[in-house]
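Moderator note: this is an archived Q&A kept for reference. The question asked for a predicted structure of one protein chain; the sequence and the answer are reproduced below.
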Amino acid sequence: MASAPLSVDDPEDRKILTLARASRARTRAAEGASVRDRDGRTYAAATVDLPSLQLSALSLAVAMAVSSGATGLEAAAVSTDAEAVRDEDLAAVRDLAGEGVPVFVADAHGAPQRRVES
């Protein structure tokens, strides 16, 4: 029996889920992701898969936040078909935000499926 999709009530969390889905859909990438920094700014990214450069969507969204001067994160979201968020991606979130930051995982349609902690 499949579990029910996760209910996300916070409008700001729904926003990053929407941005993750939109980034994925717009680029037809394997994943889309979005993060929200401590100042409320959001950064969205899609998977990069070039012959000489491969970046996951979540790692790239974290990198974009860092390169824009973010000093921490409040939340992250990833739109993926994968069964789990990669350990490397959770480590990137932890490196910037510390432990315990929620990472919302959504399907290709942006429907939240589960929440994991960084």
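Archived answer notes: The domain at 11-111 is CATH 3.40.140.10 (Cytidine Deaminase; domain 2).
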